[in-house]
């Protein structure tokens, strides 16, 4: 009596499996018909001979399964609405998938256009920056030449005045000597006077030549105008340099910034790990720790750059000092720029700002050095450099790892 439920459930299970197989095959046919319709809409033939053969083979297989079900006494329901619904869902999903692919392609095309425009803007800004520098250099050269000429004129005028005083003194001496009967002394003074007057004449001639050159070159008013133009160009030139610096840093951000030590070279990751351990040390202990790092890793802190609150800009003087440092470093050295933030303010905002600062310095190092041996990291908020002066902790350190 207990075996009857098992025997009755076996045919039911077989029936369900066969019905599922038939539905799956009908779904495959529907998919093939859908893709054939898509090919027809795109201008290609509706169906190839190989597709027709596969459809015929599937239909024969379905008919064979139907005969097998009928032989077992299993009737397939006449209502095929579930199969139609399945086919419609499959068609709808396929069309939705195609729309998604088209949307993604459009988004990629838009991003590529924006990237090309940004690169073009960067190139145009660099050309403007270079042209401005060239014009400023020409004006400085003209001003230096004019100032040199004016200085020479002033010196010669002072010599002329000095000679006039000497002539006056000699005249006085001659008058006194004329009262005496000694003609030799008078002749001696007269010869000296003639020599002095000749020298005075030559100096006056030279002054006239220099004044003529100065008149042909630039007047004092024009010189002052040039000096004023240069002074007006200096802030604009500095602003252009900062904008170019920011564009370069933004462009280099993804390739230079390491979000964690795992993205660094092994030797740089070891340096990062040792620097993390130095929080809470006294100045003397910190100096000793830096010396130990230099000996163990052949890593040297070659430049420290401080930043104003809320700013990631690098001034012209700081840029020059970084250039002097990098140009004297070894060509095969690796540079790690470590950014710190003070413990004042929001921690998340400090991390973002310090990352920008370290990438800005790393971008400058990269363009001075060339190659790929430069990375930037953010170590965290700190007071290791000064416990009572937050500005002293808003810094980036440039570490050189020598081979």
Describe this structure in words.
The structure is a single chain. By secondary structure, the protein is α+β, with helices and mostly antiparallel strands. It has three domains: 75 residues; 99 residues, Up-down Bundle (Methane Monooxygenase Hydroxylase, Chain G, domain 1); 145 residues, 60s Ribosomal Protein L30, Chain: A (2-Layer Sandwich). 72% of the residues lie in helices and 8% in strands. The chain has nine helices and four strands, in the order αααααααβαβαββ. Strands 1-4-2-3 form a four-stranded mixed sheet, sandwiched between helices. α1 packs antiparallel against α2, α3 runs antiparallel to α5 and α8 crosses α9. It starts with a helix and ends with a strand. The N terminus is likely disordered. InterPro entries: OmpA-like, OmpA-like_sf. Keywords: Coiled coil, Membrane, Transmembrane, Transmembrane helix. It comes from Rubritalea spongiae. This is OmpA-like domain-containing protein.
């Amino acid at each position: 009596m207990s075996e009857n439920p098992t025997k009755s459930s076996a045919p039911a299970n077989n029936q369900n499996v066969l019905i599922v197989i038939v539905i799956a095959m009908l779904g495959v046919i529907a998919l093939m018909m859908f893709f054939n319709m898509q090919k027809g809409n795109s201008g290609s033939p509706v169906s190839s001979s190989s597709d027709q053969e596969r459809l015929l083979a599937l239909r024969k297989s379905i008919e064979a399964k139907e005969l097998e079900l009928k032989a077992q006494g299993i009737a397939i329901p006449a209502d095929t609405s579930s199969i139609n619904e399945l086919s419609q869902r499959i068609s709808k999903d396929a069309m939705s998938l195609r729309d998604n692919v088209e949307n993604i392609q459009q988004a990629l095309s838009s991003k590529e256009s924006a990237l090309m425009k940004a690169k073009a803007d960067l190139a145009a800004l660099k050309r403007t920056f270079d042209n401005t520098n060239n014009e400023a250099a020409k004006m400085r050269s003209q001003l230096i030449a004019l100032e040199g000429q004016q200085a020479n004129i002033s010196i010669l005028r002072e010599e002329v005045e000095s000679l006039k005083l000497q002539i006056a003194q000699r005249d006085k001496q001659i008058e006194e000597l004329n009262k005496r009967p000694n003609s030799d002394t008078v002749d001696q003074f007269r010869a000296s006077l003639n020599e002095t007057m000749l020298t005075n004449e030559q100096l006056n001639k030279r002054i006239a030549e220099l004044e003529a050159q100065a008149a042909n070159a630039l007047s004092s008013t024009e010189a002052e105008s040039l000096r004023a133009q240069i002074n007006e160009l200096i802030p604009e030139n500095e602003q252009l340099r900062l904008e170019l610096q920011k564009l370069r840093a933004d462009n280099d951000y993804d390739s230079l910034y390491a979000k964690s030590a795992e993205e660094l070279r092994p030797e740089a990751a070891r340096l990062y790990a040792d620097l993390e351990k130095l929080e809470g040390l006294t100045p003397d202990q910190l100096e000793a720790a830096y010396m130990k790092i230099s000996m163990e890793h052949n890593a040297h802190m070659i430049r420290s750059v401080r930043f104003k609150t809320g700013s990631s800009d690098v001034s012209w003087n700081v840029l020059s000092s970084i250039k002097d440092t990098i140009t004297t470093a070894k060509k095969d050295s690796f540079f790690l720029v470590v950014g710190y933030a003070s413990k004042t303010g929001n921690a998340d905002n400090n991390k973002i700002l310090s990352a920008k600062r370290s990438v800005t310095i790393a971008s400058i190092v990269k363009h001075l050095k060339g190659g790929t041996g430069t990375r930037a990291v953010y170590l965290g908020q700190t007071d290791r450099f000064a416990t009572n002066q937050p500005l002293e902790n808003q810094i980036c350190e440039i570490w050189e790892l020598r081979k």
